Amino acid sequence: xxxxxxxxxPIATTRRAALTSCAMSLSGLALRGMLHAESASQPRTSxxxxxxxxxxxxxxxxxxxxxxxxxxxxxxxxDPKPELTRQAGKPHPGDVExxxxxxxxxxxxxxxxxxxxxxxxxxxxxxxxxxxKMADDWCMIRSMHTVNNNHPFAISMxxxxxxxxxxxxxxSWITYGLGSENQDLPGYIVLRDPAGYxxxxxxxxxxxxxxxxxxxxxxxxxxxxxxxxxxxxxxxxEQQSRSMxxxxxxxxxxxxxxxxxxxxxxxxxxxxxxxxxxxxxxxVLDVSRETAETQRLYGLDNPTTAGYGTRCLMARRLVESGVxxxxxxxxxxxxxxxxDSHGSLKSGIQTISSMVDKPxxxxxxxxxxxxxxDEVVVIWSGEFxxxxxxxxxxxxxxxxxxxxxxMAGGGFKAGYTHGAxxxxxxxxxxxxxxxxxxxxxxxxxxxxxHTRLSFLHKGRQERLTDPEVTxxxxxxxxxx
Length: 480
Fold this sequence. Notes:
By secondary structure, the chain is an alpha/beta fold.
């Protein structure tokens, strides 16, 4: 789990040998038993999903990320700013960084009532009444900030710690470092709207230059759970069994001939996982097995909440079964960036909130009553926030200088509000938290030292947080 440098092995190959290698790896569908955990102190000898011991004693074992694509407006949902209402229609007194060209330097008032909830008195806007009921379980970070005002770059920063694509996602780093407790399912699973992709598509869950074993695997919340998992034409069980046994022997011989080719080993692991998934995925993801009460809790009886609710319920079932990292994406309404409030801010927020509010609260409730919330980190966040001045008649532009992130479970301090922004909600000014800080803190809760987990890439030991450059640190005040 510490620095890993694959040995240099001279390889002489031909086009025919390369094609043979691919064919052999594609045939690797043999079932294999659970593998024992390795210690973090042992050198990495292969790329796999074997569970690995963390550097330190962990508080959490898994993560569910509820990504809110587009950038929720902090001053309309979480961070009340009376000054916006008092000075509405007046010029903003300072310089405001904008992204679009049709911004006016006119203060735009808060569009929803924001009130205190729970014993903690945490603030929530009126569009999120169910999430507000869980106020004493949330850890609200009001002082988040990031590096870029453009969606793709800010999304990449939140997911990979770098503002450019081509780097491993947070889920890839976590599964690379810790493996997974369930060897019959991928360690990193993605649940998106079946209708399509949000901004940046599959790049958001890429493993970058890590082996593809660590990239996110898409599961469906409608129809077949996993893409391309089952053959188009059925074969008798006996024939399938004989084929798998033969291919297992061929793969083993290929391993013996090339014992130090870790990329090959990772590829074989991928396809062996596919065989196991044929048996495991359908059972884990069948939400019809849940009680009627649980299905109602997640809003599966309501067309407005059914889609996102199904994904949230699937996330609970997956984390319950030992999957390490689950990533959910929001509905493609009112757009593929549903929290992007350049215009019609009020109606847009009402639309997306009505879809995600109840299922999000249900997920926390369900994890809590099953005794899972203490060991699972839940993240609810967009890539950035919004600015206090008006764009057009009724919108807000992007804001990299301040946004709100909600955390729950996994040892994060419940009922706690951290940090503060200026009087207009434009800049975080107190107890600031960067995206790399958040990543380092999540790692810490999983028992991983963010300064030690690295991957050799082009001669450099790469890290998610790159602490020498970003100054990333664990924010201990967020933790119970």
